[in-house]
């Protein structure tokens, strides 16, 4: 995926408008709009880093859609999460989280049993 697509996805995922991103980064809204248009300009490294910091992701992730560098020293103690996978199922996870606890337990058990087959 391209920077444009990854930026669009991240803005949608975080429910952030271009105007809000402009405020957070200090980058002109028109400039950000150009990054989001098909066949338009690519950001400078400086702007890509500002955008990434404002969104809480790496510039590498925005450029490639993948995170290959280690983000923190305690990452070895935490399970590795596939960011794209988390985003793909975000709305499903939200719905699951809103369900009563007994329903969550049943669904989780069902998924575990399906996984084993």
Can you lay out the helices and strands and say which pair or pack?
Layout: H1 3-14, H2 18-25, H3 29-36, H4 45-55, H5 59-64, H6 83-88, H7 90-98, H8 101-116
Shape: elongated
Look at the structure and give the mean pLDDT: 81
Give me the secondary-structure category. Answer: mainly alpha
**Number of strand segments:** 0
Count of runs of 4 or more consecutive helical residues: 8
Give me the Rg, rounded.
18 Å
End-to-end separation: 33 Å
Question: What sequence of helices (H) and strands (E) makes up the elements?
Answer: HHHHHHHH
β-sheet strand percentage: under 5%
Could you list the spans in which at least 5 consecutive residues all have pLDDT below 50?
A: 71-79
**Oligomeric form of this entry?**
single chain
Helix content: 55-70%
Q: Major beta sheet, specifics?
A: none
Describe the structure.
This protein has helices at residues 3-14, 18-25, 29-36, 45-55, 59-64, 83-88, 90-98, 101-116. It is an all-alpha fold and 117 residues long. It is 65% helix and 0% strand. The chain has eight helices and no strands.
Quick overview of this protein structure:
The protein has helices at residues 3-14, 18-25, 29-36, 45-55, 59-64, 83-88, 90-98, 101-116. It is mostly helical and 117 residues long.
């Amino acid at each position: 995926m391209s920077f444009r697509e990854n930026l669009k996805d991240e803005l949608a995922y975080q429910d952030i408008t271009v105007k809000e991103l402009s405020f957070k980064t200090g980058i002109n809204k028109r400039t950000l709009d150009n990054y989001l248009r098909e066949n338009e300009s690519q950001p400078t490294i400086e702007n890509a880093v500002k955008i990434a910091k404002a969104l809480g992701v790496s510039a590498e992730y925005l450029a490639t859609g993948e995170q290959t560098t280690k983000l923190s020293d305690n990452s070895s103690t935490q399970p590795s999460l596939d960011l794209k996978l988390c985003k793909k199922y975000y709305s499903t996870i939200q719905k699951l989280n809103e369900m009563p606890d007994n329903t969550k337990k049943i669904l989780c058990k069902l998924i575990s049993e399906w996984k084993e087959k």
